[in-house]
Amino acid sequence: MLTLLIELPIIVQTILVLIAGSVSGSFLNVVIYRLPIMLNNDWRLQCQSFLDLPQDEKPRFNLLLPASTCPSCKAPIKWWHNIPLVGFFLLKGKCASCSTAISIRYPLVEAFHALVWVLVYWLYGPTPIALGLMLFSSALLVLFFIDAEHKLLPDDITLPLLWAGLLFNLFTQHTSIEQAIWGAVWGYLVLWILFWIFKLLTGKEGFGYGDFKLLAALGAWGGALCLPWLLLISACTGLLIALFLRLTGRIKAGDQFPFGPALVIAGWIMIVLQPWLPVWMSI
């Protein structure tokens, strides 16, 4: 497969990656929307079971079923309206049945995901490392939007991402497996220690447990040596996000805001762009 891809002109390779990125970006939109609902339904059933309460009987709801519908009027979405990017413009950004505005997030995720895949492909070529980092970028994009909207970093993504990082480095040596293991260990412990120091001093929780697991996963992909710069970049990014949210009136002084998006941005920079970082940021 890789041999066939290499033999194609670079413009054809790029177009194929763009198409694959936009199509898979459409699926990521499904994950971003449905996974939090699936987790909430599962938690509700667990609580009902624990309390010995009657369990709700709901239609099957997962990443594949039911078929896509408008969140507002529940009208089925025709297949050609689900074509990545094209469908949004065919509908002029509105539901065909009720004319409710469609979130701009959907085409943005598809377009951004496609561009990220192309960038990774250009940087690493048709190699196993490129494929691994494309999938890594996809997982980070899902975590970014779920945490930004729900303040949630699902274990269903962070824990497999951690193990995937260890396996990725075991087979590709993007960083050594020893560095990957220590990166996972220290990635978790650093935020865990900061969490308890902050809580003992203030009585408040400065991080969520999902942040520990995400940083452990990033450490598994990038190695322990990337963590200092990763934390510095995420701290600066988090401050900029907090400032933006404060200026736009979305949070007030003292309000909590998700730190996951800042970790995602810093992790992607430090891990995907690692070979192109300045010498003084060398890991």
Automatic annotation (TrEMBL):
Organism: Pokkaliibacter plantistimulans
Topology within the bilayer: Multi-pass membrane protein
EC identifiers of the protein: 2.1.1.-, 3.4.23.43
Keyword check for Hydrolase: yes
Transmembrane segments: 12-35, 104-123, 129-146, 180-198, 218-245, 257-277
Transferase listed as a keyword: yes
Protein family: Belongs to the peptidase A24 family.
InterPro entries listed in its UniProt record: Peptidase_A24A_bac (IPR014032), Prepilin_IV_endopep_pep (IPR000045), Prepilin_pept_A24_N (IPR010627), Prepilin_peptidase/N-MTase (IPR050882)
Ranges of residues in domain Prepilin peptidase A24 N-terminal: 19-123
Keywords, ordered alphabetically: Cell inner membrane, Cell membrane, Hydrolase, Membrane, Methyltransferase, Multifunctional enzyme, Protease, Transferase, Transmembrane, Transmembrane helix
Domain annotation Prepilin type IV endopeptidase peptidase: ranges: 134-243
Purpose of the protein: Plays an essential role in type IV pili and type II pseudopili formation by proteolytically removing the leader sequence from substrate proteins and subsequently monomethylating the alpha-amino group of the newly exposed N-terminal phenylalanine.
Subcellular location: Cell inner membrane; Cell membrane
Gene3D superfamilies linked to this entry: 1.20.120.1220
Catalytic activity: Typically cleaves a -Gly-|-Phe- bond to release an N-terminal, basic peptide of 5-8 residues from type IV prepilin, and then N-methylates the new N-terminal amino group, the methyl donor being S-adenosyl-L-methionine
Protein name: Prepilin leader peptidase/N-methyltransferase
